[in-house]
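Consortium newsletter contribution from the modelling node. Members have asked for a concrete example of what our holo predictions look like. Here is one, prepared for the magnesium ion complex that several groups have been discussing at recent meetings.
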Amino acid sequence: MAAGHMLLGRRSECEQLDQLLETVRGDGSRVLVVRGEPGVGKSALLEYLVGNATGFRIARAAGAECEMELPFAGLHQLCAPMLGRLSALPAPQRDALATVFGLNGHEAPDRFLVGLAGLGLLSGAAERRPLLCVVDDGQWLDRASAEALAFVARRVPAEPIALVFAVRDPTETRELAGLPELVVGGLSDVDARTMLDSTIRGLIDERVRDRIVAEARGNPLAMLELPGGLTPAELAGGVGRPDTMPIGLRDTPAVTEADPRGTRVVVAGVSIQPDTVHPLYGIVKEVNIQFVWGYDPNEFAESLRAISDGEIDVTPLITGEVGLDEIGAAFDELARPGAHCKILVTP
Ligand SMILES: Nc1ncnc2c1ncn2[C@@H]1O[C@H](COP(=O)(O)OP(=O)(O)O)[C@@H](O)[C@H]1O
Ligand SMILES: [Mg+2]
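And here is the predicted structure:
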């Protein structure tokens, strides 16, 4: 493995990438679409590939959200270093590529010619050394480039050319569908734990680590980001104690900082702003959240009857009693569910 690209796990993925390089060194061509959810490690695998492509000529491009509306921006990025070979292409292809790259003022050319020209350019570039083309963030390629590159990928001749894309899953980019794929999943639990141990400075409680591993589902980016939401004390095992626990639901009025482990939160109201939830804290505290929709008058009537008939005893729910002038303070008290449940107002 190349220095600076220490990957955890990924043995079979790296083997497949090694084989790809071997095939191309042996004069064959290979196309591969590395597919997976954000943060799963697609770019890291591309770096591994590039780091091991000794003797290859390397051409790189990356889709960019801000360039999605610019036709051929991605293709231009990939081909720019090879444009010196433009003159070697047959005239119609040369003109087509020169036009889409803004090198002449001609009318928009046939896309087929652009594809052929791309193919010709890559073949020329692979004449003296094997060529590795790496296109990251394929989901953000402009459509024209995605089409042209897919055209090239489906036709690469048996020459030493590798064309490797990374594409986020799920994606709108249909152009690359049907090409050979390497689907990247999460790291194993063992590798995930190793990664957490190596990235977190200071002590980490085993229980907390296991919960982070479970929530991250082996996604390395999640593993790097999740611990950032916890303080060193929480990482070291203070998480279970209500007094050190950050709130489970942020900005949700029903949940306050004092929620003990195992709290059941009933969300009965609708706020205008969306409530934000940080699942990790909910998981660590094993909070149950129940969303309920309003009740009709019959349900109220039935509840009142059950209370007056003594079927429901509400006295355990009443944790305080206040006069009219203390209502404001009572609401503050109710924000601490450990202290109060219902406060009776007696006018
Ligand atoms: N196998 C791995 N071992 C260690 N760190 C990894 C591994 N895969 C990815 N990472 C790290 O996780 C983060 C996200 O990976 P990245 O390759 O950018 O994901 P993607 O391109 O799929 O969105 C990066 O910081 C990367 O260095
Ligand atoms: Mg990436």
